[in-house]
UniProtKB/TrEMBL annotation:
Catalytic activity: D-ribose + ATP = D-ribose 5-phosphate + ADP + H(+)
The encoding gene: rbsK
Inhibition and activation profile: Activated by a monovalent cation that binds near, but not in, the active site. The most likely occupant of the site in vivo is potassium. Ion binding induces a conformational change that may alter substrate affinity.
Keyword terms: ATP-binding, Carbohydrate metabolism, Cytoplasm, Kinase, Magnesium, Metal-binding, Nucleotide-binding, Potassium, Transferase
Name of the featured protein: Ribokinase
Cofactor dependency: Mg(2+)
Family annotation (InterPro entries): PfkB_dom, Ribo/fructo_kinase, Ribokinase, Ribokinase-like
Membrane-crossing residue ranges in chain numbering: none
Species classification: Bacteria, Pseudomonadati, Pseudomonadota, Alphaproteobacteria, Hyphomicrobiales
């Protein structure tokens, strides 16, 4: 039975579009507002479930309206929630200011109670983690919790994926717990100290990630697709053209969810990277993050056409 288990954070994305950011002490009128589900871990779980694989999401929620939004999002996508609810803090939220003319954004993320996920929370879920085909995490929750979860997954023979986002310095030994590390270009630069703009540079950075302990590295390269490196060989998987690009936010999450689902189904790593790229290339043609994740039928149709 294929099963993906994701550890991570849910936040409610609150996006304010205005001509400019307000100055300190000033109030201005905005042009538009949008509220939607976000958080890297939650988005990745939604992507894996939409791709048709049994998916469980480990996190913490508060007892508030945004917690209801999280539960509704996972129910719609078919994600099983492995969460605890807490009264002493709130469900995370992100303030996203979008500059109307350029579309550029500035973001404040408050992870709330999910920012307090502990190694103890993870140990309480060790059976679930150990029963997975693939375990995935990111770096929005505390590093010690992610580390403990990777240790439990590894000791149970579960395939592990670390999406090292947002970029952070990793504790010693963490990459050694990863079958796959999946940074984007910026995160690969932060981890390796190497510039990553060309395919050759991505290959060198991937080799360094392997020298640092990961079994394999997948560097996502935006519209250029992704570079997979393992066993001394690099393979470039181009992005797909699934239509006009509408919004690239969440592309990395779509990639990771699709990649995890494909590995859980038993695809070989390069085919799984291709599946992840197809998932992400469809998501960028749609608005939003979680609502943009495609179904397995849509992904299969794109792969069949390519
Ligand atoms: P974000 O932080 O915006 O969620 P990211 O920086 O983590 O994204 P990217 O490397 O930008 O991740 O993109 C992930 C994957 O999405 C790429 O490997 C590619 O397959 C797909 N993708 C991204 N941008 C495009 C695009 N313009 N057209 C087609 N596919 C794309």
């Amino acid at each position: 039975m294929s099963k993906v288990v994701v550890l991570g954070v849910f936040v409610a994305d609150t996006a304010y579009r205005a001509a400019r950011a307000p100055r300190m002490g000033e109030t201005i009128m905005g042009e538009n507002f949008a509220l939607g589900p976000g958080g890297k871990g939650s988005n990745q779980a939604v992507a894996a479930a939409r791709a048709g694989v049994e998916t469980h999401f480990i996190s913490r929620l508060g007892r508030d309206t945004f917690a209801d939004m999280a539960l509704q999002t996972w129910k719609q996508a078919g994600v099983t929630a492995a969460i605890t609810k807490h009264d002493d803090s709130y469900t995370g939220a992100a303030y996203i200011f979008v500059e109307a003319q350029t579309g550029d954004n500035a973001i404040i993320v408050c992870p709330g109670v999910a920012g307090q996920i502990s190694p103890g929370d993870i140990e309480a879920r060790s059976d679930l983690i150990g029963s997975a085909s693939v375990f995935v995490t990111q770096l929005e929750q505390p590093l010690d919790a992610a580390y403990r979860a990777l240790e439990i997954a590894r000791s149970s023979g579960v395939q592990t994926i670390l999406n090292p986002a947002p970029a952070a310095k990793l504790p010693n030994g963490m990459l050694g717990l990863c079958d796959y590390v999946t940074p984007n270009e910026t995160e690969a630069e932060a981890l390796t100290g190497l510039a990553v703009t060309t395919l050759e540079e991505a290959s060198l950075a991937a080799q360094k990630l392997i020298a640092m302990g990961a079994k394999a590295a997948v560097i996502t390269l935006g519209e250029k697709g992704a570079l997979y490196h393992a066993g001394g060989q690099s393979v470039h998987v181009p992005a797909f053209n699934a239509g006009p690009v509408k919004e690239t936010t969440g592309a990395g999450d779509a990639f990771n969810g699709g990649f995890a689902a494909a590995l859980a189904r038993g695809l070989d790593p390069v085919s799984a990277v291709r599946y992840g790229c197809a998932t992400a290339s469809i998501s960028v043609t749609r608005a939003g993050t979680a609502p943009a994740m495609p179904s397995s039928a849509e992904i299969d149709a794109l792969l069949a056409k390519a």
